Inverse folding.
């Protein structure tokens, strides 16, 4: 259903049930209070005179995992995939992610996000969290990526998955967190 511009009332004219249903009931069903179905949701425009309810989705994996891959990949061990979240999006989303990373050598360790499903957006170094060199306890870092413009999403069901790589050596990644705020 879509919102329609209300009619202009004219003095003395009859307001029919069909007009009431279209102009009042149907338009009220297109308002924010009618769209949200649970606490924590927010409303975004998905077109002219059209709104949808969205909600933040998060995932975390506090387990430690490693990789020696020099291309973005899942981790080895019990903490292999992710974290990962799947949700309905429009063309935009804010994605927040965090990781604690360390490398066994002087190489770098990176974490980025891949988007699959309705969209297909590969991981990239320029959207990654990066640490360089061997640090005793690793470095915790966070970043935010705005998926819009050249990174625009295809509306629909999208899956956001954290991936990892090193420049050399073996990277250890833990305290991994991913939050997606679809717009």
């Amino acid at each position: 259903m879509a919102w329609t511009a209300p009619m202009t009332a004219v003095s003395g004219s009859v307001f029919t049930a069909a007009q009431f249903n279209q102009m009042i009931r149907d338009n009220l069903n297109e308002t924010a209070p009618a769209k949200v179905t649970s606490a924590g949701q927010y409303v975004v425009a998905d077109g002219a005179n059209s709104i949808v309810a969205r909600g933040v989705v998060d995932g975390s994996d506090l387990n430690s995992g490693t990789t020696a891959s020099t291309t973005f990949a899942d981790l080895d061990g019990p903490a292999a995939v992710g974290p990962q979240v799947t949700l309905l999006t429009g063309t935009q989303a804010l994605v927040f992610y965090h990781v604690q990373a360390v490398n066994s050598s002087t190489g770098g360790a990176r974490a980025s996000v891949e988007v699959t499903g309705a969209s297909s957006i590969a991981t990239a170094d320029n959207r990654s969290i990066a640490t360089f060199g061997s640090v005793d306890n690793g470095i915790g870092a966070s970043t935010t990526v705005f998926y819009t413009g050249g990174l625009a999403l295809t509306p629909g069901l999208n899956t956001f998955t954290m991936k990892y790589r090193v420049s050399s050596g073996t990277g250890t990644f833990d305290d991994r967190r991913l939050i997606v705020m679809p717009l």
